Amino acid sequence: MANIALFQIATAWTYLGIDLSDFETRRQLMTNGMNLTASKAVHYKTQPIARRKDQSVVYYAAYITGEALHDERRDKTFWRKDDQGDVLHWEIVGPDGAQGWTLAELWNGAEHAAKKVNERPGRQTVIALPHELCEGGHEAAQRVARGHCLWLRDQYGIASTWALHAPNPEAHGESAKNWHIHIVETDRRMTANGAGRPVFGAKVRELTDAKQGKVEIERRRKDWEKRVNAELVRVGAVTRVNLGRKPQGDGPDYIPGVHRGPKVNAMLRKHQAATRAAMITGRALPSTPKRVASYLAYAAARKTANAAHRAIWQATGRAVSQIATASVLFDEPTPPPNTGKNRAEPGQSKDTATPIAPPSDVAQDEEQARRREARDWERFWQQEARKALSQRQRDR
Question: What start-end ranges are recorded for coiled-coil regions in this protein (predicted)?
Fold first, then answer.
């Protein structure tokens, strides 16, 4: 009975895309019932800063920190505009002895260390944050960003600057929750000399290699995911993030939301401001730009699809909650299968070991019955989820 219940839980949990081996997730499900909601996908995008695209690490460092920085190579001064949202906090993370580094010293040094015309002096990363980590204070978000940059330093020997940004003050709806982290990192391994000044070493080839680079990016994403989920548990939030390439928070056919770029965001804000002004003054409403209308139609379709998948997850999750609650009463360890011909104790030879008797017909019949029952349970939960989805669509 216990083994069947555990198998049913694992099967249903796999269908939901959640790992039951996470003890904290299972404990919260036992204590909070269905308060544990589907995991959300979080934007994590990292890309090199390339000179062939006329990009500069000094510009990105000035943009994310809000400080005015002079690029010595270009003889230009860069700064962040006032209407681009608030910079709440920023830090430099470098090797031991790098506490006295300044932004201008670090990132102008990175530009000078890149000698080639088409070289990549650094890398930039943009990461979206769950609003649960920021609305009650910024300490949790700062711990996540600082810990991730320290992990990058220990793994690759690089230096970085990270900054926490608040949503745009003119944003509305979901955009008002657009808390995010910017990271600018060096493309070379960093050390500090005797005077504590930055020293640029060899390039970090594993991040730019065609094959190894994909593996390293996935390692970075997994580290961020673990840190964010740990902080969500600490602050008592019921959501979890999933940075897999195919988000599985709402099932294997999960449809993610629509990512708005900076151009669409600017057009949408301008159109909303013009619409509000026309409504206040009593003038005719302005026409919706074609690009904004296309985005709104696409976003509405995605929102409908997400609601349908969320209904499936909730209907199936209620059944899984009942099974998980029952499994606590019959939680017995399942012995691993013994695939050898003989069972040998430590220090015992194979010749003197006790032979294992082949499984009897009764045992095989019981195993087949257990598998059939598990398949029937899985089919039942899927049918219930489809019924719930159909009922939800009819109610509309």
Answer: none
CA 141/CA 313 separation, integer angstroms: 28
pLDDT, position 147: 94
Q: Where are the beta strands (DSSP E) in 173-213?
A: 180-186, 188-192, 198-203
Tokens 């990271």, residue located: 183
Q: What is the mean pLDDT of each run of 10 residues along the chain (396 residues)?
A: 41 41 44 45 85 91 92 89 79 82 92 89 92 84 94 94 86 74 94 85 90 90 92 87 58 57 80 87 86 81 75 68 58 46 51 53 70 76 75 72
Helix (H, G, I), strand (E, B) or coil at 283: coil
Pairing of strands 342-343, 354-355: antiparallel
What one-character DSSP code corresponds to residue 33?
G
Please tell me the CATH code under which domain 42-241 is placed: 3.30.930.30
Token pair for residue 353?
A: 């070991």
- Eight-state DSSP code of residue 285: P
* Distance (Å, whole) CA 14 – CA 320: 11
Return the domain boundaries, the chain: 1-39+247-255+287-334+369-396, 42-241
Q: Is the dihedral of CA 46, 50, 53, 55 positive or negative?
A: positive
Distance CA 42, CA 242 (A): 7
Which one, of 142, 206, 221, 156, lies nearest residue 185 by Cα? 156
Instruction: For residue 48, list its beta bridge partners.
Output: 123
CA distances (Å), origin 16, targets 8, 218, 243, 322: 12, 22, 15, 15
Alpha helices in the chain (DSSP H): 2-16, 23-32, 57-65, 103-113, 139-156, 212-235, 262-281, 290-329, 361-395
Query: In this structure, what token pair is assigned to residue 201?
Result: 């070493």
Look at residue 188 and give its three-state secondary structure. strand
Cβ–Cβ < 8 Å for 332, 2: yes
Give the bridge partners for 69, in sequence order. 78
Q: What is the CA radius of gyration of the chain?
A: 27
Count other Cβ atoms within 10 Å, centred on residue 35. 9
